[in-house]
Amino acid sequence: MTSVPLVSVFSADDSSKVTAKHIPLPAVFQTPIRPDIVSFVHTNIAKNRRQAHAVNPQAGMQHSAESWGTGRAVARIPRVSGSGTHRSGQAAFGNQCRKGRMSLPIKVWRRWHRRVNIKQKRHAAATAVAATGIVPLVLARGHRISQVPQIPLVVEDKIESYEKTTDALNFLKRFGAFEDVQKVVSTKVVRAGISKQRGKKYRVRKGPLVVYFNENAKLLKAFRNVPGVEVVNVTRLNLLQLAPGGQLGRFVIWTQSAFAHLDKLFGTYRYSSIIKDGYQLLRPLITNPDLARIINSNQVQEKVQPAKTTKVLHEVQKKNPLKNTKAMDRLNPYAKKQRVAAAAAIKANTKGTKKIKKNKALKKASRAAYNKVAASLNDATKAAVQEEQDIKVKYFSVQKGAAQTE
Amino acid sequence: MSQQVLWEVVKGNNAFLVKRNGLTLSTDPFNNTGVQTYSSTGFISKNAVGVVPTSGKVNQINNINLVAKKSTKFQQVDRKAKNTQSVYASTLAVKHGVHTASRVIRKRFGTSRVGLQKAALRKLVKLNRANSVRRRNELAAAKAQKK
User: Fold this and answer.
1) Which residues of A touch B43 (CB under 8 A)?
2) Chain center to CA of A59
3) Closest C-alpha to A13, from A160, A171, A139
4) How far apart are CA A337 and CA B51, in angstroms?
5) Smallest CA–CA separation between B89 and chain A, in Å?
6) What angle do CA A207, A212, A217 make, to 5 degrees?
7) ipTM, 2 decimals?
8) What is the distance in angstroms between the Cα of B18 and the nearest Cα belonging to chain A?
9) Which residue of A111, A288, A342, B71 has the lowest C-beta tally within 10 Å?
10) Ribosomal eL28/Mak16 domain spans which residues (chain B) (predicted)?
C-alpha cells in the first residue's frame, strides 16, 4: 500500500461528529485475507470448548451371555443366559444386537481438544481482524450495516464507561448498529433437535462485537443483555468471535484506545509485534491481487499483442456448389456469366432447329386429329341420347305432352 | 479490495447465496441477474448498479431504486451527498422515468461491462413494466371506489 488508508473516530454521543479526523489504519487491516488459515484454525479451536462425555462403559454388557456355539440352528452371537423371561436366549453384546452395546463405545479419554500452532492462530486472528474492515465481507457475513457511518467503526472511549443498557442501546441506534441487533432478535429460532432439551433451546445469531481496551471498563454490563452483542477486550480477541463459524467479516465496533492498541498487539510491517513475542504480520504472496488492474495496466498492455478478432474462414455448413449457385459463384466468379450464356444459347437453339419444328408440326397434326375424333364421338353420343329420349316419349309417354297411350 | 480475492472468500458461502433446486442464486441487491456468478455479484465489485424494487406509496410513479456501489478509499458515509448514502452504496430513487435511470446505468458502465449494463437495463425495464401494470390497476381501483 503506497498510501495508508485513514479512519475517523466518532463521538459517542453524536454519530455525525468526529472527534479525531484521520487516524491511520493499523497494519493488521492490511493483512492478506487467508480464509484457508482461518478455516483450519477455526475448525480446530472450536473443538476446545467441548466437554468430555462418554457412554456408560457397562452399557449393553451387563449380561452373562455366552454363545451357544454351532449345531443349534441359531447364529453364533452370544445369547443371554437363564430362563423364565423373554430376554433369555436373545442376542446380546454385539453392536448389531438389540440392547447390545454400541461399537467402539465413546470413552472419556477421547481426544477432545486440538492444539494449533501459535503462529497459525495469530495469523488467523490477524486475518479475521482485517476482514472486519472490509465492507463486502461484512455484508457477506450477513450483518446489516446500511446505516453504519464507517467501516471499521471506531468510537471514542466514552462508551467504555457506559453502565446502563439504555445507554448501550441508544449508542447502537445512533450508529446504525441497531439494525443488526434487530436482525438477531427477529431471527431467534427454537433449535431443531434434542439440544433444546439440553439447555440450548434457541439459536441466536451474532450481532455486533464491541471491542474495548481499558480493563476496568464497565461496558460489559451495559452491553451484555443486548441480544447478539458481544463484548471483548482487545488483548483477548478471539477468532471464534471475530470469524464465527469460520466465516470472515464480523461487524466490529472498536473503541479508540482499542483501535490504537492493535498496532502494538499485532505489530506492523515495519516492526514485529511488541506483545506477541516475535510475531510478524503475514506478507501477501501477491502485492497487487487485482487481476483486472494488472491486465489493463500500461506495462502489460504495451507488451500484449492486439486482440484477435474471431475470423470466420469458411461457412459453418458446407454448401454444394454444383447445386447452390451462390456457393458456385463464390468459388468461380465466372460461373455466373457462363450460366447466363448457356441459358441464352439454349433459348436461341430451341427456336430454329428443324427437328424441333418437325416435332411441333407433328404435335399439331395429332392434336387436330384427336379433336376430330373427339368431335365425331361427341356427335354420336348426342345422337344416341336423343334417340333414347324419342323412344321414351313414344312408347312410355314420358313428358313431352303425349297424353294418350295405346 | 480486489474482486478476485473477495470472490474466493465469498463464493462458497455468503448471506445472499440461495441454493435451491440445483440452482445457485443470489439475493444480492447489486446483482441484476439473480444468479450468483463472479461477474454478476455486484457487492464484491467496485462498480455496480443494482436495480431494486421498493415498496412505495400508492401514487409514487416508480417504485424502483437504483443502488450504486461505492468504492471509496475511506469506507465512510458522505453526509453532504444528496442521495441516500450508506457505507457501501448510494441510493437513487427512480423518479423521473426510466430513461433518466437508464442514462445513469449507461454512464456508470460506459463501454465496458456491456453484459452487466444490459442486465441492469433489462431489470429496469421489467420492473418498470410491472410498476405500470400495478399503477394502472391501482388507478382503476381508485376510480371504481370513487364511483
Assistant:
1) 136, 139-140
2) 46
3) A171
4) 60
5) 8
6) 115
7) 0.88
8) 12
9) A111
10) 5-129
Query: How many other C-beta atoms are found inside a 10 Å radius of the C-beta of residue A48?
Result: 12
Closest to A120 in 3D by CA, of A269, A315, A276? A276
Verify whether the Cβ–Cβ distance A291 to B79 is below 8 Å: no
Contacts of A139 in chain B (CB under 8 A): 15, 43, 88
A23, amino acid identity = I
Q: Which residue carries 440452482 as its cell?
A: B23
From residue B58, how far is each of A11, A162, B136 by CA, in Å? 40, 44, 11
Over residues A348-406, the pLDDT tens digits come to 877 666 777 788 888 899 899 889 888 988 888 899 999 888 888 888 876 655 444 44
Q: Which of B3, B7, B10, B30 to mutate to test the interface with A (most CBs of A within 10 A)?
A: B10
Distance between CA atoms of residues A211 and A234, nearest Å = 6
Consecutive H or E run containing B64:
strand B64-69
pTM (2 d.p.): 0.78
Please indicate whether, in this complex, the C-beta atoms of B86 and A146 are within 8 angstroms of each other: yes
Cell numbers found for residue A90 = 436373545
* A175-206 confidence digits (pLDDT tens): 999 999 999 999 999 999 999 999 999 999 99
C-alpha to C-alpha distance for B75 and A44, rounded to whole angstroms: 33
The secondary structure of residue B72, as a DSSP letter, is -
Q: Which residue has the cell 408440326?
A: A361
Query: Would the CB atoms of A291 and B4 count as touching at under 8 Å?
Result: yes
| Predicted confidence (pLDDT) at residue B78 exceeds the cutoff of 70 | no
Q: Which chain B residues have any C-beta within 8 angstroms of a chain A C-beta?
A: 1-6, 8-10, 13-16, 43-44, 73-77, 79, 86-89
User: Any alpha helices (H) in B1-147, and if so which ranges?
Assistant: 3-10, 98-109, 114-146
Instruction: Decide: helix, strand or coil at residue A110.
Output: coil
User: Which grid cell is A45?
Assistant: 479451536
A17-41 as b/e: b if 16+ CB within 10 A: ebbeeeeebbbbbbbbbbbebbbeb
| Peptide bond before residue A152 is cis, with ω within 30 degrees of 0 | yes
Q: How far apart are CA A401 and CA B57, in angstroms?
A: 96
Whole-angstrom distance, CA of residue A127 vs CA of residue A356: 99
Q: In the sheet where A209-212 sits, what is the strand order?
A: A18-24, A6-10, A153-155, A252-255, A209-212, A230-233
C-alpha A166/C-alpha A188 separation (Å) is 21
If we measure between CA atoms, which residue out of A212, A258, A211, A256 comes closest to residue A9?
A: A256
Confirm if A45 and A239 have CB atoms less than 8 A apart. yes
Q: Which of A188, A207, A186 is nearest to A196 (CA)?
A: A188
d(CA A81, CA A137): 64
User: Which helix (H) or strand (E) element contains residue A342?
Assistant: helix A335-352
What angle, rounded to 10 degrees, do the helices at A118-132 and A256-266 form? 140
